[in-house]
Amino acid sequence: MMKRNIEIGLLHSLSGDYVALSTVARAGILRGVAEVNTDPALDVRFSVVERDPEGRLDRYAPLCRDMLQHAGVRHIFGCITSSSRKEAIPELERFHGALWYSAPYEGFEANEHVAYMHSCPNQHLLPLLDFAVPRFGNRVCLVGSNYIWGWEIAQIAREKISTMAGQILSDRYLPIGDTGLDQIVAEIRALKPDFIINSLIGESAYSFLAHLAEMRAEAGNAEMLPVLSCNFTEGEIPAAGAAAEGMYAAGPFFEGSAGGHGSIAEMSRLAVHELAGYLNANPGAEMLPLTDLIALAAKQGRALRLDRENQHASQPVVIAQLNGGIFEEILRLPELAADPYWTRRDRSSLPRSHLRVVS
Amino acid sequence: MTRIRTDNLGEAKAFVLHRPHPSMQPLLRQLHVIGLDVHEAWPELPAEAVMADFVFYDADMAHDEQFPWKAGASPMPLIALIGSEAPGRLRWAMTMGAHAQLLKPLSDKGVYAGLLVARSNFDRANEAAAHITDLEARLSARQTVVQAVMIFVLRGKSQAEAYELLRQTAMAWRMTIEEAAHRLVTNHSSEKVSDDSKRVDLP
Fold it and tell me: What is this structure's pTM?
């Protein structure tokens, strides 16, 4: 089949604080592009225009603009952090672009120029808490990196746990890259929580896991202080080492065998396929605004991962435990639509008010 | 203390008081995405809008008569949609009682924040108003108690005896000390008025 060529943008950092995540995302995108380009059933092939923000926040907007304005690109695959995504959005709005974003995030956004291809809290954190509280107990410590992801995960966990009659024993944050954990670890030793929500990223997370592994070894109890994460993926197993063993994680996808890159890479790969599926046999459709493109694909009866209203992907919810360097699936919930503003809970059977005993 | 409540937005009903216009689409869409039940209204808010959880209103073209309540007395959080930043229009928007604002041209941005900020400000204003009413009532009751005690003191009782007498009177009348004090003060001043009425003032 004659393939028409479409240029797509790639905006991931090849250096900087979160390079471990951006390189796996990039690998997933390039793999997706290679698959699309050799798929005889698709009439599109993609060529990649790449820009490297080097992990520097102020480079995202100008590079995004440059690709949209000068390189003739409409669809950009990229960004790991929420702050970089928010840098890109005004440029997407000004130059009619779309961002295919494939990292887990904290929700509370639904921009018409963004395809949210990973998961938001109702697809990771909330099911993880539903799983953990009956299993481990309801006395919880929260630890996170000091930026929007850590803060909002803690805020949502706090609200959710309060509806489960649980208790937040502590809520601590560490600057990104910081490994000065003595105080936080001493506090956890004293509080003995039933479990810990760990939203630390990078080096802080690996160091924290090492401290906890030491405490477990001292006590001779491998089961104590279970750690739960919504941002730890296979790509980080080598960096975290054996200390990560036993950790629980929630996400839309786990590799099931050693050596894979994990969900960020997989969702990045699927994002490329999603776009190819929308554009196939729709010449010129790449110029449509993202919402119109999704609407067209829906009208044509194509399989959609994205919701037509909020542009978030429906995702299965998988909870897995790290065992021997491999995430073993413990629980899998059927595909769940994203609820980025966490408002569908209001229609559930949750009690509307709580009676308090007044003594 | 400032609180942000994120609950129950998924059941919330919002009215948007603005003339039908394509520029409203991003707001309507985003409210829908967030999960609200959205109703457009123009030129008047219907009476049922009193039951709404949020009302958005056009600060550029709307006026008092379009609202089924008095300016500043909305029973729900209000969010002004501001285009013109002319002081006269802003004054009107504030007089209506905006708890938050969105600037035109509207987009998806700021809508969720507008809802939460408006609700937080609305809650805080109501709490403050209730607190003030309570304090005023207690303040005026305290003055009344002092006046009632003074009535007994003027009749030759010591202050301690006067308080005890007031307490016993309240018990006998089966009411609170504040209520008894109020009745004593009212009776006393009406006696005074009737005394005064007998007096003939000379020119």
Answer: 0.84
